[in-house]
Amino acid sequence: MNPRSPAFARPALRQLDRWRVASWPLRVRPLTAILRVDFGADVEIEGRLWIPGPGRIHLGRGVRFAARRAPIELRAHEGAEIWIDDGVVVEAGASIEATSRVEVGARTSIGAFSKIIDNHYHHAAGDRGERPAAVPIFIGEDALIGPRAVLLPGARVATRGVVGAGQVLSIRQPSIPRAERRAGEERAA
Amino acid sequence: LIPANNTELRRKSVRQILTALDSFARARWVLRSTKQGERVRCYGRVLVEGGSGIEVASRVVFLKGMFPTELRCAEGAELSIGSQTLFNYGVFVSAQRSVRIGARCMFGSLVHIRDDDGRRTSPVVIGNDVWVAHGALIEPGSTVGDGSVVAAGAVVSGNVPPRTLAIGNPARIFPLEDRNEAFALDGKPSSRSPVALAHPAAAVPSRDEVRSAIIAWLDDTRHFGEAANLITSDAMSLREGGLLDSLGLVDLVLMLEQRFAVQIDRELASRPGSQTLTHFIDLVTKPSGSAETSR
């Protein structure tokens, strides 16, 4: 890897696999990444977190990255912002990419190998070289994003909303999952 | 070319030139066992297995990312990649017999293409100008026509005609939204006009019937009892109002066709900005041709 462009957060020592960041020490990251990311207290990184873009990233208190199996990517493009609220858990292989804004509510869990992306980058038909407008993505509090889910531009997940494993979402997702609603209806009947 | 006082831009372009040179050199090295064309670029890691059967045409690009791209080709098999095709990171292409990829294609991250699933081996052919989006799977025996789009997370096993959108698991086929000449190229102009199938005039469903069917379907599959509140008026676009995504549109059209035994013109149904309740009701209730004028 080119040591100049990507900023890798990785335990200084291999045996130090679990790594708790109470106050963010200077020695663990290149200075450029510290300028772009504001970390809350107790951000926990297991494994490798990759922050390649020039945009701003906010990590709330107690955010946890469980990246032991595969790296986690947070890519904020020029002028974009990724806002991750307190207590969010991000699983291995997840990737969040913002060209405008991606917001993840408090205590939400983001499943392994899921992708959250607020731009299609290409038009399906017509000029593929032209980049379409971004649509910000908002995920509510206590939501669950399943493993391998894909959130596309325009996706909105309500508070306590559930995105199933492997689901591709580009519209709003309601708070009550279908199974729960069915169960509620059956109880009422 | 760059003003001497613009040091920022100078530094940037020098960096770009260096990265480009680096990518050419890297491509020469990682694809050394393959037959590669001119100016192939490789920004990230690419794993190659069985390079003797792999053919990479000129100006193919492999991007950098979280995972390496892997090209795998069995003994005696062929894997060919057309010129100017672009691979995002983590693409997996495996050829046990034959995988052919056309020119100017785009492959999103974590796309999986294979011609052997352990039970059958059947060649995969991908045309020119195809866009395969993030996380899609292309199964053995698939063919993807020129200019088609395979949506994110789709699982394709079969034939995708030219200039169509394959979406969902298993993939359903739909025309691309902005179709200027699609379908005309497909040679199937008959699909342009909505034709009533086994649908005598007396049995035309009432508008209310269709309306409630659409809302019940939205409730059941998408919005769980909130659909009626979310639709502010019949003239509101379900797509732009965020109530219906492209996969939802495909499923809605299929549901209406099955429920009311009509054939709905895919092109009229997927026209951008026209996906209102009124429009869908028109498509089901009005006979051929009049749906468009009544918008």
Description of the molecule:
The complex is a heterodimer of chains A (189) and B (295). With 189 residues, chain A is mainly beta. Helix content of chain A is 9%, strand content 37%. In chain A, strands 1, 2, 4, 6, 8, 9, 11, 12, 14, 15, 17 and 18 form a twelve-stranded mixed beta sheet that branches. The radius of gyration of chain A is 17 Å and the shape is globular. With 295 residues, chain B is of the alpha/beta class. In chain B, a hairpin with a 4-residue loop joins strand 20 and strand 21. Chain B has helices spanning 7-30, 207-223, 227-230, 246-260, 266-269, 277-285, 290-293, and strands at 35-36, 41-42, 46-49, 54-56, 61-62, 69-73, 78-81, 86-87, 92-95, 98-101, 106-107, 112-114, 124-126, 131-132, 137-138, 143-144, 149-150, 155-156, 159-160, 164-167, 172-175. The interface between A and B is medium-sized, with 32 and 37 residues.
Number of helices of chain B: 7
Task: State the major sheet of chain A.
Answer: 12 strands, mixed
In helices, the fraction of residues of chain A equals under 10%
Proportion in β-strands of chain A: 35-45%
User: H/E series of chain A, N to C?
Assistant: EEHEEEEEEEEEEEEEEEEEH
Helix content of chain B: 25-40%
Task: Give start-end ranges of low-pLDDT stretches of chain A.
Answer: 1-30
How are helices and strands ordered from N to C of chain B?
Answer: HEEEEEEEEEEEEEEEEEEEEEHHHHHH
Features:
heterodimer; A: 189 residues; mainly beta; 12-stranded mixed sheet; 7-stranded parallel sheet; 19 strands; globular; disordered N terminus; B: 295 residues; alpha/beta; 8-stranded mixed sheet; 7 helices; 21 strands; 26% helix; 20% strand; disordered C terminus
Spell out the blueprint of helices and strands.
The complex is a heterodimer of chains A (189) and B (295).
Chain A: E1 7-9, E2 20-21, H1 31-36, E3 37-39, E4 43-51, E5 56-59, E6 64-76, E7 81-84, E8 89-91, E9 95-98, E10 101-104, E11 109-110, E12 115-117, E13 137-139, E14 144-145, E15 150-151, E16 156-157, E17 162-163, E18 168-169, E19 172-173, H2 178-188
Parallel strand pairs in A: 3-5, 4-6, 5-7, 6-8, 6-9, 7-10, 8-11, 9-12, 10-13, 11-14, 12-15, 13-16, 14-17, 15-18, 16-19
Antiparallel strand pairs in A: 1-4, 2-4
Chain B: H1 7-30, E1 35-36, E2 41-42, E3 46-49, E4 54-56, E5 61-62, E6 69-73, E7 78-81, E8 86-87, E9 92-95, E10 98-101, E11 106-107, E12 112-114, E13 124-126, E14 131-132, E15 137-138, E16 143-144, E17 149-150, E18 155-156, E19 159-160, E20 164-167, E21 172-175, H2 207-223, H3 227-230, H4 246-260, H5 266-269, H6 277-285, H7 290-293
Parallel strand pairs in B: 1-4, 2-5, 3-6, 4-7, 5-8, 6-9, 7-10, 8-11, 9-12, 10-13, 11-14, 12-15, 13-16, 14-17, 15-18, 16-19, 17-20
Antiparallel strand pairs in B: 20-21
